[in-house]
UniProtKB/TrEMBL annotation:
Superkingdom of source: Bacteria
Residue ranges of domain Helix-turn-helix in the record: 48-96
Lineage start: Bacteria, Bacillati, Bacillota, Bacilli, Lactobacillales
Entry-linked Pfam families: HTH_17
UniProt xrefs under SUPFAM superfamilies: Putative DNA-binding domain
Protein name stated in the entry: Helix-turn-helix domain-containing protein
InterPro entries named in the record: DNA-bd_dom_put_sf, HTH_17, SinI_DNA-bd
Species of the source: Limosilactobacillus walteri
UniProt xrefs under NCBIfam families: excise
Amino acid sequence: MHCRREVILLTKINAEFPDEFTNSIKNAIIQVIDEASKSALSDQYPTYMTKSQAAQYLNIALNTLDQWIATTNIPYVKFGKIYRFNRNELDKFMTSTK
């Protein structure tokens, strides 16, 4: 019962705030969620990834990653037959690709 009163009270208060204020709060919440999801991904994927890890990180097939290597400027470093992909550089690449 106590929680219901708080929800009703918050709903009434929310209606009284200006749109700019509520939009600022929404944007701040979205930013926190984005940062938390990025942090979760950084815990799951190393900074320097193999081709297989990079494909999984980008949610694409390994064949697609091979095509991107051949046809785009996807950032990677190659040591002999070994490819390494920097997670931060991949993020930049994906945000700049249209």
